[in-house]
Write a structure and sequence with these properties.
The chain has 639 residues and is an alpha/beta fold. It folds into five domains: 138 residues, P-loop containing nucleotide triphosphate hydrolases (Rossmann fold), CATH 3.40.50; 78 residues, no CATH class; 50 residues; 206 residues, P-loop containing nucleotide triphosphate hydrolases (Rossmann fold, 3-Layer(aba) Sandwich); 96 residues. It has 19 helices and 18 strands. A hairpin with a 2-residue loop joins strand 17 and strand 18. Helix 3 runs antiparallel to helix 4, helix 5 packs antiparallel against helix 6 and helix 12 crosses helix 13. The longest helix is centred in the C-terminal third of the chain and has 61 residues. It is flat and about 155 Å long. The two termini are 69 Å apart.
């Protein structure tokens, strides 16, 4: 029996038809990937299924007692309590049972035999319902979605937007609804979080409809694919990779059928023209009537994709980028990322990966020299021209239109502007939209257009596929693969990394690990996930060495600071004593001229005492100054 049935769904936004007579069923165990271009109506369809939005026609019917859970892209997750309390609310029934058990325990202590009988029955029911494991389950889900234990007691009101999305996803997984609707659940997850979510959804007991732009995630999770195209839902069997093959074959069949019908129509019309007034007019009129009843096939049309051009004519030197003894971060002595040595050479495509908050964007900013290194050195190679795509396009002026933004970058609006923007999916009045009202995907396309204008030979790309639909991701992947320069790519998109990366830089526990190829990284990553003893021992040793080095460096910095402070104090005292000697010299001269023998004797003794003190200060100053110079020389050598 179907959990949910939709019939003849239609939806308009203004004059735009989003859904047209859409019908489908969802059965227990279905894991459905809903795909399509940005703006085609995927989120709208999920909202209608969830009952958050009314369709203009048609209906959605649920089977009785079907529980539904919905994760929108930007959830309004309000809760007065802490993160842990918000998760505990899912188990209110168990909490009530626990309270009753405690009351019965009190009564049992007073010798109440009826309480003892009731306690045994209730305890068994409590155990069967998961009363002794639900706290561990909460911890597992929160940890899997990237919340450390230190954040379990944070008030929900203090969570960021991305944290609230993950918190709502956690609660939905704990609730275990019969039908789970997820709109971009991987947006705020790192690779480890995505892999954990995959495992949860592969064993999901209920049904699932998910919108996601992560191809590997969809391959791992989906058993069916719904393609929302031209306001219609086309259903396919299998995961995302199976869908792409089936869709290509279906389009070829549709094209062949269309061409065959067009050929037949042309022959029929030619026959009608030639014989309508002749001896075969009866046959011609019959064919005309039949032709009028023919249901005309439409020409199959794939959605228009963006056309990127990241060309460069500038050839860099062989060494593009070198990081040596680098400490990248914001607080002196507390680096987010340490790099012993890492280099990128011309033509390489390096993927930079790591958990959220591990310092990937911080390291990019250090490479771009917008954030100075805490220690160590960044070497930019000869003839390198850097182009940067930021994860958040904060540099775009929200008050300029898309067309004006391009004009600011030096594009001739009359001859090039609109044609250039059309290649990036901005057509018609879209070019007059202000940047501030654009969606995430539209802003990303503007940023890619500006990046193309730079003609850089080294691209630093920070999560470039985050807001792009799947066809646009495939286009970008193809462009990067054929880019003649060098690429440093930050991404959680494992499919993209697997296809493109010649090297992988992985940040783990504050250190950068370098791997040749995705396979070597994947094996290391799997060993880390399994907690292999050899990996743990290796990482423990590296961690101790790094901590020892950091501790020694901190001690050296503190010692240098103390020496510098002592040097400055000595210079102040020396200056004061030199002034005192000058004053004594003047006083001795006056006393000598006045032939005041007793005063000359007294002043002379004071002069010799101050002079001896000053010499001692000067000797100490020379020692401290030498130590400070040694520290500075050592720091320059490391840099």
């Amino acid at each position: 029996m179907a959990l949910l049935t939709a019939s003849n769904l239609s939806k308009f936004y203004g004059a735009d038809l989003i859904l047209s007579n859409v019908a489908f069923e969802v059965h227990p165990g279905d894991r459905i990937a809903l795909v399509g271009l940005n703006g085609c109506g995927k989120s709208t369809l999920l909202e209608i299924i969830a009952g958050r939005l009314e369709s203009d026609a048609g209906a959605v019917a649920r089977a009785r007692h079907t529980r539904l859970g919905y994760l929108p892209q930007n959830p309004d997750f309000d809760d007065a309590g802490t993160l842990w309390e918000a998760m505990e609310a899912v188990f209110e029934g168990l909490l009530e049972q626990a309270r009753e058990l405690r009351l019965l325990e009190h009564d049992m202590a007073l010798g109440d035999e009826a309480a003892l009988a009731r306690y045994g029955v209730l305890l068994e029911a409590f155990d069967v319902a998961g009363g002794f494991t639900y706290e561990a389950r909460i911890g597992q889900v929160l940890g899997g979605l990237g919340f450390p234990k230190s954040e379990f007691e944070i008030p929900v009101a203090h969570l960021s937007g991305g944290q609230k999305t993950r918190a709502l996803l956690a609660r939905l997984l704990l609730e275990e609804p019969d039908l789970l609707l997820l709109d971009e659940p991987t947006n705020h997850l790192d690779i480890e979080g995505i892999e954990w979510l995959e495992e949860q959804l592969r064993s999901w007991k209920g049904a699932l409809i998910v919108v996601a732009h992560d191809r590997e995630f969809l391959d791992a999770v989906a058993t069916r694919v719904w393609d929302l195209t031209a306001a219609q839902v086309e259903a396919y069997r299998g995961n995302y990779t199976a869908y792409t093959g089936q869709r290509h074959a279906r389009r070829q069949q549709q094209q062949s059928a269309f061409e065959a019908q067009q050929e037949n129509i042309a022959k029929t019309e030619d026959y009608i023209r030639r014989y309508m007034a002749g001896q075969r007019s009866t046959q011609a009129k019959g064919r005309l009537r039949r032709l009028g009843r023919v249901e005309r096939l439409e020409r199959p049309q794939d959605a228009q994709q963006i056309r990127l051009d990241l060309h460069t004519n500038i050839r860099s030197g062989n060494l593009v980028l070198g990081l040596y003894g680098l400490h990248s971060g914001y607080e002196p002595g507390v680096p987010l990322v340490t790099v012993e040595e890492a280099e990128i050479h011309r033509g390489e495509r390096v993927a930079l990966v790591g958990p959220n908050g591990s310092g990937k964007t911080t390291l990019l900013r250090t490479v771009l020299q917008t954030l100075p290194p805490l220690a160590g050195r960044v070497r930019i190679g000869a003839a390198v021209r850097l182009g940067y795509f930021a994860q958040v396009q904060a540099d775009l002026d929200p008050h300029l239109t898309v067309l004006e933004t391009l004009a600011d970058a030096g594009v001739d609006l009359l001859s090039e502007g609109r044609a250039f923007l059309a290649r990036y999916g901005f057509r018609g009045d879209d070019v007059f939209k202000e940047v501030g009202v654009l969606s995430g995907g539209e802003r990303a396309r503007v940023a890619l257009a500006l990046l193309a204008l730079e003609r850089a030979n080294v691209l630093l790309l920070d999560e470039p596929t985050n807001h792009l639909d799947l066809p646009s991701q495939e286009t970008l992947q193809d462009v990067i693969a054929h880019f003649p320069g060098t690429v440093l790519l930050v991404s959680h998109d494992r499919y993209l990394i697997r296809q493109l990366a010649t090297h992988v830089w992985a940040i783990a526990d504050g250190a950068l690990h370098v791997f040749e190829g995705y396979q070597a990284y994947a094996e290391w990553h799997q060993l880390r996930r399994e907690g292999a003893p050899a990996v743990r021992q290796m990482e423990d040793k590296e961690r101790v060495q790094r901590e020892s080095a950091r501790q020694a460096e901190r001690e050296q910095q503190r010692a240098q600071a103390r020496q510098q402070q002592r040097l400055e104090a000595l210079e102040a005292v020396i200056h004061e004593q030199e002034q005192h000697l000058q004053q004594l010299t003047t006083a001795l001269d006056l006393a000598g001229r006045a032939q005041d023998i007793s005063r000359v004797t007294k002043l002379g003794a004071e002069y010799r005492q101050i002079e001896a003190h000053l010499n001692a200060l000067l000797e100490e100053w020379a020692t401290v100054a030498g130590a400070v110079m040694d520290y500075e020389s050592e720091t320059k050598t490391k840099g």
